[in-house]
Write a structure and sequence with these properties.
The protein is mainly alpha-helical. Helices cover 67% and strands 3% of the residues. A hairpin with a 4-residue loop joins strand 1 and strand 2. Pfam families: GIIM.
Length: 147
């Protein structure tokens, strides 16, 4: 709970955010050999229940932060799946990136988490929506409007 100027509101406890991130970290583990579509299905199911429980909280910025962090974790998993330079090159070209950028990214020797930020242009929000990932903030606003 928090106290504003004119009212008292509900917020998420820091431990709650840590718990959901740890659970999502397990679901997006790099060591799991799982298709992205299966990961997204399990993430959607988990977050659907989680947002239903915590939708009373009046902190949309926390939900946006978790959603952005989750997309970065998923980009990291995709980059790990595209293990070889040849595969990375082919997949990035298929996403429509310029050849010069693709060449630099495919041959990069940075770690998975570090490269996930550079993949943001190729694997953007529209890409994840097309893959079936449901937006946490959209769900939050839809549930809040229903009240």
């Amino acid at each position: 709970m928090y106290r504003g100027k004119d009212r008292v509101g509900i917020r998420l406890a820091p431990e709650t955010v840590k718990r959901v991130k740890n659970r999502l970290r397990e679901m997006t583990s790099r060591s799991k050999a799982e298709k992205i579509s299966d990961r997204i299905k399990s993430i959607n199911a988990y977050l659907g229940g989680w947002i239903g429980y915590y939708a009373l909280a009046e902190t949309p910025s926390v939900f946006q932060e978790i959603e952005g962090w989750l997309r970065r974790r998923l980009r990291m998993c995709v980059w790990k799946q595209w293990k070889r330079v040849r595969t990375r090159y082919r997949e990035l070209r298929a996403l429509g990136l310029p050849e010069r950028v693709v060449h630099i990214m495919a041959n990069a020797r940075k770690g998975y988490w570090r490269m996930s930020r550079q993949l943001n242009n190729a694997l953007n929000n529209a890409y994840w929506q097309s893959q079936g990932l449901k937006s946490l903030t959209e769900r939050y606003h839809r549930i809040r409007q229903a009240w």
